[in-house]
């Protein structure tokens, strides 16, 4: 049984930082690319960042580029999302997700932003950024 468990969410002031973690079990973690998505109240789920199996390739949403960093530790079956310079508009429930797929070229990386590619999802962790 595959489980993805997020942690590290909380309340932070604008300009602050948080690091989210997502630990996987029930799958061969190093075979899976990992993504982070978020959903704000009244809005659709949106892509945040993704990382390939080795950690050598990443993609970010334009809204978080330069502020967020995705990384992974395959020995710990964990993917991280470091979030700096947080803004009130970053407030959302953050979900991690796993997929066996990855883009076949740098030009095709955009495909990894699609939630339908991801097979497994965590329960989410709340991030609230106060102004």
What report would you give on this structure?
This protein is mainly β and 131 residues long. It has strands at 3-7, 10-13, 18-25, 33-39, 46-51, 58-60, 68-73, 78-83, 92-99, 120-121, 125-130. Strands 2, 4, 5, 6, 9, 10 and 11 form a seven-stranded mixed β-sheet that branches. A four-stranded antiparallel β-sheet has the order 1-3-8-7, with no helix packed on it. Strand 5 and strand 6 form a beta hairpin.
Topology summary:
Blueprint: E1 3-7, E2 10-13, E3 18-25, E4 33-39, E5 46-51, E6 58-60, E7 68-73, E8 78-83, E9 92-99, E10 120-121, E11 125-130
Q: TL;DR?
A:
The chain has 131 residues and is mainly β. The protein has strands at residues 3-7, 10-13, 18-25, 33-39, 46-51, 58-60, 68-73, 78-83, 92-99, 120-121, 125-130.
User: What's the rounded overall pLDDT mean?
Assistant: 96
Binned, the helix content reads under 10%
What fraction of residues sit in β-strands? over 45%
Low-confidence runs (pLDDT<50, min 5 residues)?
none
Largest sheet: 7 strands, mixed
Number of strands: 11
What attributes does this structure have?
globular, 131 residues
């Amino acid at each position: 049984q595959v489980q993805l468990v997020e942690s590290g969410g909380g309340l932070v002031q604008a300009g602050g930082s948080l690091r989210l973690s997502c630990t996987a079990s029930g799958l061969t973690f190093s075979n899976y690319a990992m993504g982070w998505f978020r959903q704000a109240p009244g809005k659709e789920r949106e892509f945040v960042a993704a990382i390939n199996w080795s950690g050598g390739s990443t993609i970010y949403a334009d809204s978080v580029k330069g502020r967020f960093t995705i990384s992974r530790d395959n020995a710990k079956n964990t993917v991280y999302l470091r979030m700096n310079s947080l803004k009130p508009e970053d407030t959302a429930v953050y979900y991690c997700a796993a997929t066996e797929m990855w883009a076949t070229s740098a030009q095709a990386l955009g495909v990894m932003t699609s939630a339908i590619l991801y097979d497994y999802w965590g329960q989410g962790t709340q991030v609230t950024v106060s102004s």
